[in-house]
Design a protein that fits this description.
The structure holds two protein chains of two kinds. By secondary structure, chain A is an alpha+beta fold. Chain A has 17 helices and 22 strands. Chain A has a seven-stranded mixed sheet with strand order 6-5-15-16-17-14-18. Chain A has a six-stranded mixed sheet with strand order 8-2-1-12-21-20. In chain A, a hairpin with a 5-residue loop joins strand 9 and strand 10. The radius of gyration of chain A is 24 Å and the shape is globular. By secondary structure, chain B is of the alpha+beta class. Chain B has one domain. Chain B is built from seven helices and 13 strands. In chain B, strands 1-9-8 form a three-stranded antiparallel sheet, covered by helices on one side. In chain B, strands 10-2-11 form a three-stranded antiparallel sheet, with no helix packed on it. In chain B, a hairpin with a 2-residue loop joins strand 6 and strand 7. Chain B is globular and about 60 Å long. The chains are: A alpha+beta, B alpha+beta. At the A-B interface, loops of A face strand 12 of B.
Chain lengths: ~525, ~250
């Protein structure tokens, strides 16, 4: 039971597989094919040559910068090879009332967030300025489709915080090359045809059609929603979350720009519909536009009509007429556990919910990082690490689900059954109901992030709550620090306005900066 | 703003160039690009740093003249007070332009001398009698000695730009540049902060292996690196000048 982990095998080569391989290989010395040297293990990724990766546009969190940097990836190369662009947050349209309402969730926390909670101070001025604009320059920047930095800013550094939009298929290919050429990952192209068990019930090896048995001590299931190892082999069930988050279908399209040099959005656009919402993600080469909706509340026909109307009105009639829609079905939920025996699932094999707030890739990053960091020393301690992993990620999934649900429960829309059902008390997790009650009397702040595994910082809750018109009642008691803090808040609002103007005047457009990256590249310093 | 045109001995025959040094003539600048080939002269007068072109993010070596924008400590009513004036300053009002080369392969360009028609240095004269400034052309339309010297400077700059590319690439490859910020407290208590500049990472330099050092030596980079380091000594006299100006 105490044999060492000498071989880690990843099954599946999409973004989840290669990103996991990269994160683990960036942390550890990976041994060569012909036996491991002291202190290293072999990392093999088995990928089917027959399953094509689907080129969806995807959004990342700012965490991806650190993930790429740690892998030793040049940000310039990443931009050039993955059709990447800058993402500074999300702009929501029609979520509050279904009319022309807009609010934003920028990646940058409010000014001096560690010192002062600006939310209560903003409450008194809420009629004059929206919350996000009052406390951070970022939403004004992405309203102008500006970049978060300049060409003279070193790679991965920024003027304002950012993540990426990218082409997932190109990204997987880019990571594959880096993992194999730079990080020592072994790539096996073969189809999995069976799973061989050890006496203790562990997976001993996977049988492949062209490479025989691939043996290992730890198997990472990145086989997608099929969950070949954790689901099909071990039978770990999916916990459905469809009672909380209703969306279970998506229609996706790739829409070219009308002119090659049309501006590129530097945020994800999310526009509420009758029974779901439409995403728009700007890549340098094209826009990814899709409609995610609930099939219990909408027909495919009506959903595609809404999507085509959106494309016609935001891009052009011609673009709508030429659009090919690709349908994706999913059951919102996650596995009852993610690590079972010597098998751990990462990516869609672990679970999938709608793409609101782009939590898919960050969960891959976090899962792989935890495996890399806590790689079990031997089989004997693996069950302990597995338990920790399961506890941590069940907690994280719950937090994500609550945060996504928050977007719906705050809506004043009652125009369709979808929006009415979303506000039914029975569909709201109890913990979220409690928080909402609490937030009526105190605004979220650091005290609300008492767990390091919280997925969304309290600042994100502030942006969504106050963007959606939520009201926190003024404090009942007068605090001794009130006057001093009020003055400080006033200064910070002023500072934010000045900084916004200065950044608006000095930052290039998203498109211009990306073109400059192609021509000159970023410096490392 | 600049307005460059290809130099022509007919169109530009009546132009003369004011070679004086003053704020009006555009010399009141904080720093200017320089090249390893002139580092020996530069380091005897000015500190050498590295900075980024805001349009491209590319790094280049620069000679520092002052501690704030549009302020050149070497400039006084009597001109530019230093034994050497950098090539990029002396080049004005000329610049190397490129035009299609009909004799070369397709897409080839050749360097041509251009002149900034909006330069404050230009003096338009009616006849050949004017003695103000320097003439561009002799009466027979051939380049004047002044113009020939300027063309020589432009040719050096042209080579210098190419050399800089290799020099900077080598420095970056070996991580020999690092961001640098300098806080200067003047006698009146005021602070001047220099940010956005880069300098040689001396610790990295000291840990270079023999092979790299030999390569750098053969390419001439080693001497340039040490001249840039030595040029730091020029900061002190600049601070003294600044203090003297405060009175």
């Amino acid at each position: 039971m105490n044999h060492k982990i000498n071989r880690v095998v990843i099954v599946g080569g999409g973004t989840a597989g290669w990103l996991s391989a990269g994160v683990i290989a960036a942390e550890h010395c990976i041994g060569s094919k012909n036996g491991c040297r002291e202190g290293s293990f072999q990392l093999t990724l088995v990928e089917s040559p027959d399953i094509a990766t689907i080129g969806v546009g995807e959004g990342t969190w700012p965490s991806m910068r650190n993930t790429l940097q740690k892998m030793g990836i040049s940000e310039t190369e990443f931009f050039r090879e993955c059709s990447a662009s800058f993402k500074q947050g999300t702009l929501f349209r029609g979520w509050r009332t279904g009319e022309d309402d807009i609010y934003t969730h920028p990646f940058t926390a409010p000014q001096s967030y560690t010192e002062v909670n600006l939310a209560p101070h903003w409450q008194t001025a809420r009629e004059q300025i929206n919350f996000a604009q009052a406390v951070s320059p970022q939403s004004a920047l992405f309203a102008d489709k500006l970049a978060p930095k300049k060409i003279s800013t070193p790679e991965y550094a920024f003027n304002v915080n950012y993540g990426y939009h990218l082409d997932a298929a190109k990204f997987a290919e880019f990571l594959r090359k880096h993992c194999v050429e730079k990080l020592g990952v072994t790539h096996v192209k073969a189809n999995v045809i069976g799973i061989n068990s050890a006496e203790n019930g562990d997976i001993a090896s996977i049988a492949t059609d062209s490479h025989g048995n691939v043996e290992g001590e730890l198997f990472i299931d990145c086989s997608g929603s099929r969950a070949l190892l954790l689901g099909e082999h071990f039978g770990i069930p999916v916990c459905s979350k469809s009672d909380i988050l209703f969306n279970n279908n998506a229609l996706a399209a790739q829409i070219p720009y009308t002119n090659e040099n049309d501006p590129i959005e530097s945020c994800t656009l999310s526009t509420a519909q009758s029974a779901g919402w439409i995403w728009e993600i700007g890549l340098p080469t094209r826009r990814g536009i899709g409609h995610v909706y609930s099939s219990d509340h909408n027909t495919e026909e009506r959903a595609s009509e809404e999507l085509l109307n959106y494309i016609a009105s935001t891009v052009s009639q011609q673009a709508a007429a030429a659009a090919t829609l690709r349908k994706v079905q999913f059951s919102p939920g996650h596995r009852a556990k993610f690590w079972h025996k010597n098998c751990v699932a990462i990516g869609m094999s672990a679970g999938f919910i709608e793409p609101l707030e782009a939590s898919a890739l960050v969960l891959v990053e976090l899962s792989a990082a935890m495996i890399a960091e806590q790689l079990p020393a031997n089989r004997g301690v693996m069950d302990l690490v597995a338990k920790r992993f399961n506890d941590k990620f069940l907690y994280r999934w719950d937090r994500i689900i609550e945060f996504l649900k928050l977007h719906y429960v705050l809506s004043q829309r009652r125009d369709t059954e979808y929006w009415r059902d979303n506000c039914e008390a029975s569909s709201i997790p109890e913990r979220l109901t409690d928080l909402l009650t609490l937030w009526r009397h105190q605004s979220p702040w650091h005290r609300d992030n008492n767990n390091v595994d919280d997925m969304f910082p309290s600042a994100s809750f502030q942006y969504v709550l106050y963007g959606m018109d939520f009201e926190t009642m003024p404090s009942q008691t007068q605090r001794r620090s009130e006057q001093a803090e009020g003055l400080r808040a006033g200064h910070l609002f002023q500072e934010n306005m000045a900084r916004t103007k200065q950044l608006q005047a000095s930052l290039p457009s998203n498109r211009d900066l990306i073109n400059k990256i192609y021509t000159f590249g970023f410096q490392k310093i | 703003m600049s307005n460059y045109n290809i130099l022509n001995n007919d169109v530009h025959k009546n132009l003369r160039v004011n070679t004086g040094r003053s704020a009006q003539l555009g010399d009141n600048i904080m720093y200017s690009m320089t090249f390893p080939m002139e580092f020996r002269d530069i380091q005897s007068c000015y500190p050498i740093f590295f900075c980024k072109d805001p349009e491209s993010g590319q790094l280049y070596p620069a000679a520092l003249f002052g501690f704030e924008q549009d302020h050149n400590l070497f400039l006084s009513d009597s001109g530019w007070d230093a034994s050497y004036i950098p090539m990029m300053i002396r080049r004005h009002p000329f610049l190397i332009g490129f035009q299609a080369d009909p004799d070369g392969p397709e897409g080839a360009t050749k360097p041509v001398v251009s002149i900034d028609s909006d330069s404050p240095r230009l003096i338009e004269v009616d006849g050949v009698d004017s003695q103000e400034g320097e003439a561009l052309f002799n009466q027979d339309g051939t380049p004047s000695d002044f113009l020939q010297a300027s063309i020589g400077t432009l040719e050096s700059i042209h080579r210098g730009l190419e050399h800089n590319k290799g020099f900077i690439a080598a420095l970056l490859e070996h991580e020999l540049l690092e961001p640098f910020s300098l806080e200067i407290t003047l006698n009146d208590g005021s602070n001047n902060q220099l940010v956005g500049f880069y300098t040689i990472a001396e610790e990295k330099l000291q840990s270079l292996d023999g092979e790299t050092l030999a390569k750098f030596n053969a390419q001439g980079y080693l001497q340039s690196i040490y001249m840039a380091i030595a040029s730091f000594a020029r900061l002190r006299p600049m601070i003294d000048k600044k203090n003297a100006q405060l009175g």
